[in-house]
């Protein structure tokens, strides 16, 4: 069994630790780093996993999961470059950062797997897309895939598609939350109590997602099944199209993709 260290135990890092433990991993096989001592002590108490510094993590772990914010990557790579052991697998959860950045800044030959997860990881329902760097072999991809399967679904994509993945599923939960927020507000406008509106919309979202996942039907077919001739739903759909909701969503996802590209280019030198 490999020893895995999560570098940066924020929301995503903690969710991964929790998921690995729930999947049967022993706390003795896991480590984490955290800059705030109080937070480190809290996580150790909660999960029984030891908090360490970066050099200790690099010295003990076979897999280092980098879960820091992109703006914090430079000092972490500087620290890792001096202590990384040969053969250690780097799994990056950093949005927008290419495997080439890690390969350039860390010792020659380091295997890197790039991952774009999303926040449903905290409830074990993440969608993660993985891509291997130049030195990542099939066994490295398989190891990363098995690890991430503990917290959701995993797909493999070419790294050239990772910016699109970031825009679509990495940021995707925010689009759904935004839509749910607007629908709850609409319920309040129509006279429903906030709690009732929230219950109606959240359960509708959960049920609709289950239908999309389990039915095998195309979203258009499922939408048409709700859309009766001259009914209430088609009246709503006409308004959505009239206000350009479809075009606005596509443009928003393109903007997120462009920002992901920018994040990667900021670390090219």
What is the gist of this entry?
Helices cover 54% and strands 13% of the residues. By secondary structure, it is α/β, with parallel strands linked by helices. Helix 8 crosses helix 9.
Number of spatially distinct domains:
2
Structural class: alpha/beta
User: Compute the gyration radius: what is it?
Assistant: 21 Å
Unreliable residue runs: none
Number of strands: 8
Overall geometry: elongated
Query: From N to C, what is the helix and strand string?
Result: EHEHEHEHEHEEHEHHHHHH
CATH class of the largest domain reads Alpha Beta
CATH superfamily of the largest domain: NAD(P)-binding Rossmann-like Domain
Q: Treating each run of at least 4 consecutive H or I residues as one helix, how many helices?
A: 12
Amino- and carboxy-terminal Cα gap: 37 Å
CATH topology of the largest domain: Rossmann fold
Percent helix: 40-55%
Structure description:
- The protein is of the alpha/beta class.
- It folds into 2 domains: 157 residues, NAD(P)-binding Rossmann-like Domain (Rossmann fold, 3-Layer(aba) Sandwich); 91 residues, ProC C-terminal domain-like (ProC C-terminal domain-like fold, Orthogonal Bundle).
- 54% of the residues lie in helices and 13% in strands.
- The chain is built from 12 helices and 8 strands.
- It has an 8-stranded mixed sheet, with helices on both faces.
- Helix 8 crosses helix 9.
- The radius of gyration is 21 Å and the shape is elongated.
- The model has no long low-confidence stretch (mean pLDDT 95).
